[in-house]
Write a structure and sequence with these properties.
Arc Repressor Mutant, subunit A, homodimer, mainly alpha, TetR family transcriptional regulator (chains A, B), 11 helices
Chain lengths: ~200, ~200
């Protein structure tokens, strides 16, 4: 609660006060208990509001998470693009989708999210984002009886995190100015191998 | 100069004052002019000391740079390991060397360097580190008449940066606990392909 504490008595605090209280409670819950271990009801309880108000302001739990992490885009949208790709084109699709997103006007927000994650004030939240939100459906899709896919998607995350940093934060040339097609040609096979290839 | 300004008259300021002045001048020069565009003489001039004192305190220009970036290890040592590897084992060697380093007691310092770079207060310094110090000799080694190798080493940097973040900052499992051999088996071929393979 950053300086906008308001009285609890009488009517609800103004919209921005309730929103902030919900975000604050959600940040703590997600960070401590992860995405799966957090319920809208618990967040609402912590914030002293009705669960319906949480849904009203933020939509689904995934959307609430996106708001907490200050994601510039609903992860659902990205996941739908991934889900529509044939498995043998998933690597190239993930690289093309993410790099295109970072090159758009949403890129600076993606960099801001990354900076927050790397600043390390809240590694629990970052882990939760990758393990339970960003990577979960791709993991489930590539899982087999002998390999749950979690190592594979973590490897994918390592390559894509590094690409975001090299291209958008450090602006390492010639990678920063490389056309998306060239990035996809270079990095798509890496991600595809991490997803479905032989890992040695 | 952070609160330890000392008079210029009479004897040199104490060792720590001169060291701090040199580091301060070097940070500005490296950041503005890059590694190649910075001379020990210019740094010494800015700091108001004799160039010999810079060499005395910090050794080579590369070692001065390492001190500015607060690298936990002289990059020369790492480069010698890379240089000793046969070209077709360079990918695996780079992954094994860096991951082993990060897993050692030097790992937390490596993470600190990364955090500073990603915080983005000084992208010029980070670029200079990768382009002119960390990657230059590997680039020169893989350069051909038609490809100077700069895109290839930037791709390597993207994968290794992301590995450092995933494994050591976010501690993304199962990657964070993966034995070094398994990381080398998974990521070595990626780095080898970036260095010497077909990039599409």
């Amino acid at each position: 609660m950053t300086g906008e504490a308001q009285g609890r008595s009488g009517r609800r605090p103004g919209n921005s006060g309730a929103r902030a209280a919900i975000l604050d409670a959600a940040r703590r819950r997600f960070s401590e208990n992860g995405f799966d271990g957090t319920s809208i009801r618990a967040v609402a309880g912590d914030a002293g509001v009705d669960p319906a108000l949480v849904h009203h302001y933020f939509g689904s739990k995934r959307q609430l998470f996106a708001a907490v992490v200050e994601l510039p885009i609903d992860p659902e949208v990205v996941m739908r693009v991934f889900a529509a790709a044939p498995l043998d084109e998933l690597g190239a699709t993930m690289v093309r989708t993410l790099v295109t997103l970072w090159d758009s006007e949403l890129g600076s927000a993606a960099v801001a999210v990354l900076r927050t994650m790397v600043a390390g004030t809240d590694p629990g939240l970052a882990r939760s984002f990758f393990v339970e939100v960003a990577l979960e459906r791709v993991r489930a899709r590539i899982a087999t009886e002998t390999d749950d896919g979690s190592g594979r998607v973590a490897l994918v995350a390592s390559q894509m995190l590094g690409m975001l940093i090299a291209r958008k934060v450090i602006e390492l040339e010639p990678l920063a100015a490389m056309p998306v097609d060239a990035v996809v040609a270079a990095v798509g096979p890496t991600v595809q191998r991490y997803l479905t290839g032989e890992l040695g």
